[in-house]
Structures are given as structure tokens and as C-alpha cells.
Structures
1.
Amino acid sequence: EVQLVESGGGLVQPGGSLRLSCAASGFTFSSYSMNWVRQAPGKGLEWISYISSSSSTIYNADSVKGRFTISRDNAKNSLYLQMNSLRDEDTAVYYCTRGSTTGRSDYWGQGTLVTVSS
Amino acid sequence: DIQMTQSPSSLSASVGDRVTITCRASQGIGNYLAWFQQKPGKAPKSLIYAASSLQSGVPSKFSGSGSGTDFTLTISSLQPEDFATYYCQQYNSYPFTFGPGTKVDIK
């Protein structure tokens, strides 16, 4: 069974940093691309970052470019999102998703809440 | 970036109703269109990919159609567990954009 478990969310002040993790199991992690998708409270879904299976290709949404860094450790079956220079508008539930061969999100984690507030 | 729109933004329906949701892309995306269902407080769940292919384990009451710029999600006979918000997403090119969602609630 595919499982994705996010962790690392919490309360952080504007301008601060946070690192999210996603532990993957139930599939060959090193064979799949991965994504981060977020959802602000009461709002819709926003794709923010993609990483290929070998980490050779990365895409980021303009809203996080230069502030967020996606990475992975295939030996640890883990995906990460380093978030710097956080803003109020980054407050959201952050989901990690597995990418299919076409990149679409086929499985989702349960999400981790990040709150940016002073 | 490709913009995605959905209509209606919300609808009220009764158990047993046939429901259709429309998604439109601002430019052609072939069939690179997925549909997701999200219930309150839960993660989204994949329903349809490649515009009309059913994700494994999803009941056949869900169906998708369309290509290019216009797509539809149909629920053939609405059941209590289907009341949720539905999102479309294009995955033709990055950034992979979502539609704003359609909330389906009980009439």
C-alpha cells in the first residue's frame, strides 16, 4: 500500500524557516517523481514544486521560487521541502504527492499544517 | 501559465441525481487532465486521469470526458459519500495548475 506521511509543520514567524519531510513507503521511491502541493485555509489547491526521480529536474511555482527548495534522499525514501523567508500567505496545509509517469499526482499524503504568524 | 476554470463553483443535488462538472483550460492540453475529490479535513483523492481513465479502485459511477480545452466529470448517481469538492488539474505543462473547485452539497 502506498503511504506518504508528511511532518515538520508548525507555527513560524514571518521571515523564518521550516523544513518539511515526507516519508514514503509501499512503492519503489527512487522510481517516481514527487511533488509538493499546498492548500491555504478555506482555499483551493496550489501545486508548488516538482522533483524528478533522480533529482535531475526541478520545477517551482513562481510564488515560491527563490525561497523554497525541494530535495529528496532516495536511500531514505524521503522527500523534503526547505522553506525560507516565509510569509503570511505561505500559511497552508502542505501535501506531498507521488508523481505518475506523466507527473500527475496519483497518491497524496495526509498533509502537514504550516502557520506563518507573528 | 495555463489557467483552469470550473463551472459551476457549487451545486446542490439530491441522492440519485446525475451530476456534471465542467473544466476548461485556457489553452489546449490534449488529454492531460486529472480530477480529484476532496472531503472536508481530508487529503484530495485521485479519481480520473488522462481525462477519462479511472484511477484504480474508483467506482465506475465516476466518468470523465473531453480533450483539448473542454472537459467534464460526471457522477452517474450521486450517493451520500460523494458530497465533496471536486478539482480538475492540467498536467500538460508546468506549473501544473488546478481549477478553483466545485463544491457538491446536499439539496
2.
Amino acid sequence: KAGVTQTPRYLIKTRGQQVTLSCSPISGHRSVSWYQQTPGQGLQFLFEYFSETQRNKGNFPGRFSGRQFSNSRSEMNVSTLELGDSALYLCASSLVLGGSRTEAFFGQGTRLTVV
Amino acid sequence: TQLLEQSPQFLSIQEGENLTVYCNSSSVFSSLQWYRQEPGEGPVLLVTVVTGGEVKKLKRLTFQFGDARKDSSLHITAAQPGDTGLYLCAVSGAGSYQLTFGKGTKLSVIP
């Protein structure tokens, strides 16, 4: 079956711009989480969506937002980009069974560079 | 303060050598996961350990969960160049689906 698909793979933006990243989960997976990975901070949780609702949010400023559509596809948006937002953004999808989350499958990520 | 401390941060070894990497915390966890991330890819789950003292084997990889469920180790026997990658440990938050990761051990296996 197809894995988690993230688009685009690479992106270069200028400070002050905004960006939208997309994630298509594995078919049947309704939980989608987003993570930011940087060399200094490692992998950090951004937020998680399930059934089109944000269930949990990490410690990031309000410039970082997301949404989930009825087909479970998710987007995250970063407004007013800063140089420090340069990172690999990873999306992970999971099944939710009886309230428990199963294994998280990660996409290849979107490499965002802010110049 | 990092919830999960991984050591060493970097490791470069020759093919055929053995190695152990560690994941430590002062907190107790109900379970702990190990992932491997290769360059240009997302992390891939290797194993989940649940019971204190549990040992799981995956081919040449041996994972152990500490008796007190505060720490874990990953031992690789006869490392191969294909083992090269970033090894991450992670735990789930209580009552949430959030994964908290250590900063990882970057392993290079030289042919």
C-alpha cells in the first residue's frame, strides 16, 4: 500500500513569506501528526489531528497552524517565516483503534529553507 | 532539560564491530520506541519495548528496556554499512498521541 506522501519535498522561501505543506496519510489512517526536525533541537512535536480536529499542540508560536480535511489529508501553514523555521517538516500517520494509537508511519518530509 | 538523553551523539565504527547506544531519562515510561532514520527519509519504527527488563531482538539488533523503565539500550552486533543512520528513541505522552524524541545517535559504519 502507498505510504505517507508529503509535498513538496523541497521548498525555498524568503523571510516574511508564508508556506503551506501537505501530507496525505496512509489510506485508512485518520490520525496525522506533524514534527519539525532541526540539527539543534532534533524532532519536535508540532500538532496532531484526528477526525478533522486538533487534538494536541506542541510548544510552537501561533505562526504555525494546521488543518485536516474530511479525507484525512492534512496541511500545515507557517506564516511570517523566520530564518529559524528552516527545517525538515515530517508528517506521520497512525491508525486509532479503541482510543489507542498504533505505529506511526512517517513521510519523507518537506525540507524548508528560509533565506 | 531533555526528557530523553541519548548517547553517544555521534559514533563512527568499522564494519564488523559491535556497538551500544543508550537512551536515558529520570522519568518512568509505560513504553519506549526505537526508530532509525536514513538520510532523506523519515524515521522508521524498529521496535517498541513495554515491560521492564524486556529484551527484543531484530536480526543483529538487540533492544533492552531497563528494569525501572527509565532507560533503554540498543546493541548492534557485527555492524554493516546498511546500519548507518540516525537512531532515535521516543516515548508517548500520557493521555496524548504526541511522541517525544531524544536527539538521536548518528551512526556511521565504514566499510
